[in-house]
Every structure is written in structure tokens, then in C-alpha cells.
Design a protein that fits this description.
This protein has about 270 residues and is α+β, with helices and mostly antiparallel strands. The protein contains 6 helices and 5 strands.
Length: about 270
């Protein structure tokens, strides 16, 4: 028996040898991203509704020295200057639209990718009966899409956090505050009747807190998704390195394929 040829080839990994770890984490990251995307879009939409859809991001607040709002503080009523709605310059509507609808797009994208990862096999070559074959092929488009959307998500989150911080800090002359405080809720009464204060998810302060926190968590879950895709590609989790040996046996060419679980197996064969 004479060895005629010997070479290595990369083939699709057998699905049974691919860890379920990848599929579970992909689905988990998509689920968290979808939930956080919805919460960010919904609560920030309520914030905009508090101010009749005037953009609060980086708004230049002007107070009216002739008009006051009564705020309960420490068991007593404290008058605070109202907003001068004619002189106040609201932020660009484009910024608020971007900060609200980017998380919404993230939510839709996460649901779609999550559905893909649920339907397909956990990786490798897949099974003959699979609805979508070759599940490893989805990793590469997911990596590209996640990278592009990751950059967009960062910009959206920064716009939201910095814009809201700039807005809330302008109330410092009235509340001596740094960042957002619950007392800002009273200023929404200039835009809505008091009866709206009993509506669920109405108050400015809790809504803006949920919007910022969910945006941060959603961004980190998207980072996890990106790291998963990069790691899966770098570890070649869905592919297998095989040694193909072609030998002659009784005047017939026979092809022998040896599969390696890892690179250490290659060294052991070489030593032999």
C-alpha cells in the first residue's frame, strides 16, 4: 500500500460536536436586546409626550420670572419659576427621533435574528431534516450586521444620555441639582392637565431613568452578541480540519479521511 497523496481540508463540523453554548447565548443576547430596545423606545416616547413632543435633548431652557409653579418640598409648598415656553429653544427633532427609533429598530432586528437562531440547528453542517440547512453560514452575516448596528447603537445611547443630562442640568438654578431629579415632573403640568398624572408611565423622572438604564443594558447585550460572533469565527467552532490520505491498495486508489478534534491531534499524527 503506497501513499499517493496527503493533504488537509476544512469541512463542516458535525452538528453533534458543536456546543449548545453558542445557540443559547445568541438567543439570550437577542432576547435581552429586544426587551431593552422596546423599553427604551417606549419610555423615551413617554418623555417626549410629557413635553408634547418637543425634543428635550440639549434643549435650552428659559425660565419665566413672572410665572411660578408650586412644588411640595419637605411638607411645605415651594414656588418655582415656570418655563418660558416662548423663549425656550427645544432640541432638534432629528436627535430625538434617532434616539427613540434606533432602539426600536434594534428590537425588531433582535427578534428576527433570535428567530433565526431558534429555528436553525446549533451549528456545523446541520441535519437533513432542518428547515434551514448549514446553520454555520448565518454567523458571518450576523457578524457584519451586528458590527454596523453596534456603531449606530453607541451613537444613539450617547445622544440620549448626554442630551438628557444637558436638559436636566439646566434646572440647577431652581433645584441645585446635578442630573435629573423627580422635582422636574412638576414642569410637565405646563403641557398637560393634572388629571394625566395618574396615567401609567406618565411621570418624566422614572421614564427617563428606565430609558437610560435599558439603553445601557441593551447596548451591552449587543456587545455580547458581537463578541459571540467574533469568538465563534476565530475559534472555528462550526468547521473541522481533516487529514485526507490517498493510498493505493491492490491497484485501487483509496481515500482515507482522518478527523481532528483539535490541533494537538495533528502533532500526534506527525510524530508517528
Amino acid at each position: 500500500m503506497v501513499v499517493l497523496d496527503q493533504f488537509y481540508q476544512i469541512a463542516e463540523q458535525d452538528t453533534s460536536r458543536v456546543s449548545s453554548f453558542w445557540k443559547v447565548l445568541h438567543i439570550l443576547a437577542c432576547t435581552v436586546s429586544a426587551i431593552c430596545g422596546f423599553l427604551t423606545a417606549f419610555t423615551f416616547g413617554r418623555v417626549l409626550d410629557n413635553f408634547t413632543y418637543n425634543c428635550v435633548l440639549n434643549a435650552q431652557i428659559v425660565f419665566d420670572n413672572s410665572s411660578f409653579l408650586n412644588i411640595s418640598h419637605g411638607g411645605r409648598i415651594v414656588p418655582k419659576r415656570a418655563l418660558d415656553l416662548t423663549a425656550t429653544i427645544w432640541g432638534p427633532a432629528e436627535d430625538c427621533n434617532f434616539a427613540q427609533f434606533t432602539p426600536l429598530f434594534i428590537m425588531i432586528s433582535a427578534l428576527i435574528w433570535g428567530a433565526y437562531f431558534i429555528v436553525i440547528a446549533k451549528g456545523g453542517a446541520g441535519h437533513v431534516t432542518d428547515l434551514l440547512g448549514k446553520p454555520w453560514l448565518i454567523v458571518y452575516p450576523c457578524l457584519i450586521f451586528t458590527t454596523i448596528l453596534f456603531i449606530t447603537y453607541i451613537i444613539s445611547t450617547l445622544k440620549l444620555k448626554h442630551g438628557v443630562e444637558a436638559f436636566c442640568n439646566q434646572f440647577q438654578p431652581e433645584f441645585n441639582n446635578t442630573g435629573c431629579v423627580p422635582e422636574i415632573n412638576i414642569y410637565t403640568e405646563q403641557f398637560h392637565d393634572r388629571e394625566h398624572s395618574h396615567v401609567l408611565f406618565y411621570e418624566f423622572y422614572p421614564n427617563i431613568l428606565v430609558a437610560i438604564v435599558s439603553s445601557d443594558i441593551g447596548l451591552w447585550s449587543w456587545v455580547v452578541q458581537l463578541i459571540l460572533c467574533v469568538t465563534r469565527v476565530c475559534c472555528v467552532a462550526d468547521l473541522d480540519l481533516q487529514l485526507v490520505t490517498i493510498v493505493s491498495k491492490e491497484d485501487e486508489e483509496v481515500e482515507k479521511v482522518v478527523e481532528f478534534a483539535d490541533m494537538d491531534d495533528i502533532d500526534e499524527v506527525s510524530e508517528v
